[in-house]
Protein 1
Amino acid sequence: MTVPIGVIAVLCVYISLGVLDQISMQLGPYSPLFGGAITGLIMGDLKTGLIVGATLQLMTLGVATFGGATVPDFLTGSVMGTAYAIIAGKGAEYGIGLAVPIGLLLTQTDILARMANTFVQHRADHYAELGDYKKVERCNVYGVFPWILSRIIPVAIGLIFGQSVVSVINSFIPTWFMDGLKTAGLILPAMGIAILMRYLPIKKYFSFFIFGFVMMAYGGKNFSILGAALVGLAMAGIYVLFASKKKSAVVATGNEDDDIEVDDDDEVEIDE
Amino acid sequence: MNKLDKKDINKVYWRNLFGLQWGWNYERMQGLGYSWVVMPALKKLYKDDKVAMSKALKTHLGFFNTSQPMSHLIIGADLGIEEKTGMEDEMAIVGLKTGLMGPFAGVGDTIFLAIYRAIIFSIASYMALSGSTIGLLLPIIGGVMIAWVRYKFTWIGYRQGTKLVTEFADQMKTLTEGASILGLTVVGALIPSVVNYSLDLKYKMGKVTLDINDMMNQVLPSLAPLLIVLFSYWLLGKKKMNSTRLIFVLIALGMLLGNLKRIFGL
């Protein structure tokens, strides 16, 4: 099945909105979940799209651009993976397997876009010297184009040649490799979780981590993530309650440090 | 000196909501975007003073990078200062921006990127896996709420200025700690539910068949996913290891684990 030109155009518009969402409000269209769902909807197989999108989303939960670091473009990966799964008619697993390497490959276009914008930054510096604020203003708007092009070009090319790409994959890539990719898809969510563990203060609060794990590992059938989140919220609430109590107690004694006893000693010394 | 009115502040808010990162680049990161965001205020304040305008433009084009929701506090406080003293004390403005962007990035990324995203999107994804599209509304509802918080942040920053913004950030530290507890509980809970791998290896000894995965689960349910997560966590602590490299390691591991039957000829 070749992808109609209209479908490609709509997906290009979507991916442009998606990347703008990614660098601004992060409402949802930027996420692999939406990428799969919307591609599935447009190409007439919503169910496959939802599965590919949701699986990729779970895989990349902790993968975020902390401090402007470049991460693989899993949004485009999700769109292409879903599209290829539908073109090939081989089900969601096939799409998931392809989405990961595609996302990895497209890390490079993201880097190119961020590098291209250094050029507009320099133009803006030049206009700032002249005090020409209107042109400085325009430079930031021009910055949109590298972002959009870096997503539209791979999507358009990948979909125009979609049928040939799929047949190449089917005839040249061995079964063991696709099996391996499928298993990789099952264990890759570990990466997102590990990143979150590195990012959050796990050494200080490991007890809550154990709590969450045990709740789901032993009670997973009768429990959900939402339930775990609510338990976590309750424990966070208790923490904040005690933290603010401690703080007001500290304020009442006139000390700002956490360790009241030591401070009392200090005060005695000062009094002497 | 001209004064800013409500309309100017709101214009800055909308620009910040959408365009802080359009011109993101490796050299100054959000620097170009920052100048664009505060431009409605700069126009009002320095329209008749070309020297001050040029100085302001150059100051705001400088290096800047922080968590987007938190940037509203900094930008609000910046507007408050510039409205009073203009570009007279540019070092105070540079100090405000560079002094707060680091700590705010830490707090903001923890709450808005790590914890919020992990919770909202894992719930939405589970709903999607069972074929429901209603879950897709969750991030949108959450996003609109965050936009409201960002609106409040702009005004808090503008009205309260540097000192109170800094104090506000201290209060947020308690919140961040609380949010970390919530986040880590969810992260722990995610392991058994998100990492769906089970070791497909059965070992035949005469009449008895040993299912390795069953044995592992008798020790601890979801032991295999836990081990893979701990392995990844350990690897991430290594020098020269980053998330992209970890993906390759895990794909290689997948290639191995996915072909165990072929390897052992079972």
Protein 2
Amino acid sequence: MATPVMDKVEAAAAASPYITATFRIRRFNPEISDESTWEDFQVEIDPKERVLDALHKIKWELDGSLTFRRSCAHGICGSDAMRINGKNRLACKTLIKDINPEKPITVEAIKGLTVLKDLVVDMEPFFQAYRDVMPFLVTEGNEPTRERLQSPEDRERFDDTTKCILCAACTSSCPVFWNDGQYFGPAAIVNAHRFIFDSRDEAGEQRLEILNDRDGVWRCRTTFNCTDACPRGIEVTKAIQEVKRALITRRF
Amino acid sequence: MSADTTAATGATDDVTLYDVDNPAPLIEAPRKRTKKTPKATRGNFEMYGWLFMRLSGIVLVVLVLGHLLIQLVLDGGVSKIGFAFVAGRWASPWWQAWDLVMLWLAMLHGANGLRTIINDYAERDNTRFWLKMLLYTATVFTVLLGTLVIFTFDPNIR
């Protein structure tokens, strides 16, 4: 009874955990061509590693010209949002074993923003929309001499939307944003929601007015792409609907 | 100098159009503040449009399903429909009002929906403008013609 178990353990230990995965990466270099092309890379890698590790391996060992953003590499900074197998994800939070490494894994830049090189996009329009909703605490009157206290219930009201890391995975998965890029996008609305429902903030009216505009919340088609894409699990579409409800109920 | 010249000729002979000094043009970023960027508006039009779609949708479910039931299923089905049947129904103000409300709600609901689709899918401002003009013309024409017919219907017409 004991012998076969021993054999199995030894066999598993002897077998290499490494597999050969193909990464099909959409390359774009404006200094070579105005067209982007798909390029395949074969990587020997442990499937329990992340897509970001594979990208590192390609950049460090196969092709140093591969360009992508990453900072913390642990799902907090929001730099490495990219479209992996057709879905917006953070490369540093996607394990290779979870996305079927038997087939080529496609990696491309997030959509709807101008590609500068390979996987790097111009995030400026995204941050412009973010700045437009005034993502900072606005209050009137004198500053209190101590902290602005808040009850746990009041904090709970907007807890979900405080988790946003501004990776643009939601905004660049939104079909309405893809069209002309004038829509504020889910990320800006999520960050407006974070202050609109904050009991300490006093500029909720102004933010609602901004989001009531032609390119504000009313362009949301509730396709739930943003909720699916969010690497932090924020219920983005729900937040947008709550802003809609606030806009309607303040007048009716 | 000579090395520079050979490099330059090499670049022109090459099939690629772009190099380090002459990169491919980038697509203009969306939301970039240009002269053509429309100013922020302060109206509630989009909100009322959104609300209208929800409310008229609920009413239309009743109106349209009732209409289909009466026209196609009850009392002999579609074979009974003729000039006399329509004339008989429009003799009653109730059915006149039903059809009038259904016409207005359905046309405005459909027009607003198509306006949304045009806004979402039209790529150029010109295309968007002319598609919307076509839509508004068709809507106004249909609504006015339908209203005219309902109010001026003459059952004794020859």
